Amino acid sequence: MNTPEINTSVFKRLRFVLVETSRAGNIGAVARAIKTMGFGDLVLVNPRFPDALQDPEAVAFASGAQDVLAGARIVGSIGQALEGCNFAAAVSARLREFSPPVWTPRAFAGHVAGQGELSAALIFGNERFGLPNQIVEQCNVLINIPANPDYSSLNLAQAAQVLAYECRVAGMANENGEAAPSAIGFHGDAASLEQIEGMYAHLEQALVAIDFLDAGNPKKLMPRLKRLFSRTQLETEEVNILRGIARHILKARA
C-alpha cells in the first residue's frame, strides 16, 4: 500500500489567526488579502460581534474571497486556534520587554517556507488594542513590519497582506528549487505549542517546589524563561528532557 504524500507546501501549512477583531469588514478584507496570495486557512478567536462570517460588511469586503470567509473557523481561545501548529508568530507594531525574538516578515517567510515539517500560525490582534502580552509570550517569534517610523500605522488587512506576500514569494522560490531565504532549521521534530506550554507549567511547578520561584510574587521570572527558550526553537525531545528534569525535582520534593 502506498503511503499518502505529505503536502509540504507553505500554502497548506500557514494559518492566519485574528484575535478579538472589532470590525466585520476587516475580517472580510483579511480573507481577500490572504486569498490573493494563495492562502486560505483563517481562524477567528472571539470576534467582537455575532455572525462574524455572515455579516454583510464582512461579505462585501471579502470581494471574491467569500469561500475563504465561509471556510473560516470561530474558536473561543488561542489554544484552540493553534491546535495542530508547532510554530507561532505574533504580529505587532509594539515591541515588548519580554517578547520572543523579533523577526522581519521576510525572515519569517523564509524560515517557514524552508521547513516542510512546520505548521505555522500568524497571529494578529485587535485593531485598537493589539495582542495581549500573554499571547505574545506563547509565540516563537514576534514579527515587526519595518514601516515608516514617523507613521507606522497599518490596518489589519494591510498587515496580513504584507505577511502573505512575503510568504508567497518565499514559498514559490522554495517550490522552484531556489534556496530559501533563511538558514535557520530544525534537526529534530519541532515541539508543538501545546507541548511547550505544558513544559512551562511543569517547570513552574518544579521551581516553586524548590523555592526558586515565589508563587505569590513571581515577578518576571517565567516571562524571562519563556523568552530564553523561545530563542532555541525547542524540539520535542528537548521538551521531554526538560519535563523529565521537572518531574524528578517534584518527585524528590514529595
Please report the distance between the alpha carbons of the first and last residues. 50 Å
What share of the residues lie within helices? 40-55%
User: Strands of the biggest beta sheet: in what spatial order?
Assistant: 3-2-1-6-4-7-5
pLDDT averaged residue by residue:
87
Q: How many strands?
A: 7
Number of helices: 11
Shape: globular
Largest sheet: 7 strands, parallel
Give the SSE string: HEHEHHEHEEHEHEHHHH
Gyration radius, in Å: 19 Å
User: How big a fraction of the residues is strand?
Assistant: 5-15%
Structural class: alpha/beta
Unreliable segments of 5+ consecutive residues: 1-6, 180-186
Q: Can you describe what's shown?
A:
The protein is of the alpha/beta class and 254 residues long. It is 45% helix and 11% strand. The chain has eleven helices and seven strands. The protein has a seven-stranded parallel sheet. α2 links the parallel β1 (14-19) and β2 (41-45). α2 runs parallel beside α3 (56-62), α2 (24-36) packs parallel to α8 (156-175) and α9 (193-209) runs parallel beside α11 (236-253). The radius of gyration is 19 Å and the shape is globular. Mean pLDDT is 87; it is low at 1-6 and 180-186.
